[in-house]
Write a structure and sequence with these properties.
By secondary structure, the protein is α/β, with parallel strands linked by helices. It folds into two domains: about 230 residues, Spore Coat Polysaccharide Biosynthesis Protein SpsA, Chain A, CATH 3.90.550; about 120 residues. Helix content is about 55%, strand content about 10%. The chain is built from twelve helices and seven strands. It has a seven-stranded mixed sheet with strand order 3-2-1-4-6-5-7, sandwiched between helices. β2, α2 and β3 form a beta-alpha-beta unit. The structure holds guanosine-5'-diphosphate-alpha-D-mannose (GDD) and manganese (II) ion (MN). The site of manganese (II) ion has 5 residues, from loops.
Length: about 375
């Protein structure tokens, strides 16, 4: 019976999966372990490579997810698929030091700890040869995380850790957000009871095969996750993102309106119409990239999505104006609260309708 499940999220890691298994096997010599690769249907065929390996090695399995993307949710699914009392999460790209695994396991099996984190920041750990801007961003994001974190972790952003399976499942039940890259931070911020943890230093290695999936979106997703934790998880996370995009759209609207009306000297009606179309389109594109990153529309679906988005938002605008006007004409009402109520109704409408009609859950296959 495996004592330890090693969860490996993968996206386009075909050149690394076998080497990682070999290294993990070497490090965990004498320990009963299994590896669960969670692959999001990588175009390079990573899932098939893992299955080929699993045909030779019973300790290896593959969960292939179709129509979904996300490092955190992949880790969560891997943890839930494990039967071992302890689970570890490690990147496929060999950047994390698998030689830490036996020590981590020993510490957890000691019974005093829930989590052991591979940390780049504690003494004698290091971030390898990151360039200064990435290093600075990482430090800054770490500082920001303390706002929502219930623990004084040195490296809450680490993607390399081991946790008692029960503790992880408790966090998952309590509602981890699953957004973005920062699964460890998510677990710590969500845990119903404070997690007992320890950090072990290691040196972050350079990637040899494949490339990093960390892009600018990751910063946005990170910010959204912190906001979600900060607000106690009461408002749906996509609605927060949707509203932030909407707020930005208002700025776009005003700029276009000003440029057309004051700059180009068109009539106000034309300027307002143009501004509305540009703002709707920019909101659509931004929601497609940011809010619905994991089900992004491309090609013809993108065009169809634009139509449904504009249609939904037009109705939303009518509802907004109608409600605000109705409230405004009720006795003793105040114009600001009427307007805010209108905007809120419109926003909720737009969000709800586009969630169902524009960004439909993809069919499997
Ligand atoms: N299933 C799945 N789905 N796996 C993914 C996805 C996804 O959408 N995106 C990335 N991965 C996998 C990669 O294949 C890799 O095994 C691992 O997640 C990390 O992705 P990288 O793109 O290599 O991230 P990084 O090296 O820039 O950042 C890593 O290290 C940081 C420092 O420890 C991540 O682990 C970060 O979370 C971590 O903060
Ligand atoms: Mn990496």
């Amino acid at each position: 019976m495996p004592q330890l499940s090693v969860i490996v999220p993968t996206f386009n890691e075909i050149g690394n999966v076998v080497e990682l298994r070999d290294r993990v096997a070497k490090a965990l010599d004498g320990i009963d372990w299994e590896m669960i690769y969670v692959d999001d249907n990588s175009p390079d065929g990573t899932a098939q490579a893992v299955r080929d390996m699993a045909q030779q090695d019973r300790r290896v399995r593959c969960i292939q997810r179709i129509g979904r993307r996300g490092l955190s949710t992949a880790c969560i699914e891997g943890m839930l698929a494990s039967s071992a009392p302890v689970v570890a999460v490690i990147d496929a790209d060999l950047q994390h030091d698998e030689r830490l695994l036996p020590k981590m396991l020993e510490l957890i099996q000691g019974g005093e700890l829930d989590v052991v984190v591979g940390s780049r920041y504690v003494e004698s750990g290091g971030i390898g040869t990151w360039d200064e801007s990435r290093a600075a961003f990482s430090r800054w994001a770490t500082r920001l995380s303390r706002v929502v974190l219930k623990a004084d972790l040195q490296d809450p952003m680490s993607g390399f850790f081991m946790i008692r399976r029960d503790a992880a499942v408790d966090c998952i039940k309590a509602g981890v957000s699953g957004v973005g890259f920062k699964i460890l931070l998510d677990l710590f911020a969500t845990s119903p009871t404070p997690l007992r943890y320890r950090e072990l230093p290691y040196e972050f290695r350079n990637r040899v095969a494949g490339e990093s999936k960390l892009d600018t979106n990751v910063a946005w997703e990170y910010f959204i996750m912190l906001l979600d934790k900060f607000m106690g998880g009461v408002v749906p996370i996509r609605f927060i993102a949707f509203s932030l995009v909407g707020g930005f759209g208002l700025i776009v609207h005003l700029i276009v309106l000003w440029a057309m009306f004051k700059g180009a000297g068109t009539t106000f009606l034309w300027a307002q119409t143009g501004a509305t179309m540009v703002a709707m389109t920019s909101n659509y594109v931004m929601n497609n990239v940011l809010t619905y990153r994991d089900m992004r529309l491309h090609g013809w679906s993108f065009v169809r999505g634009w139509f449904s988005f504009v249609l939904a938002c037009s109705v939303g605008a009518l509802a907004n104006v109608g409600i605000a006007d109705y409230l405004f004409h009720k006795e003793g009402s105040f114009w600001v609260s009427s307007a805010i109520a209108g905007v809120l109704v419109g926003a909720v409408w737009n969000y709800a309708v586009t969630a169902v009609y524009t960004w439909k859950k993809p069919k499997a296959g």
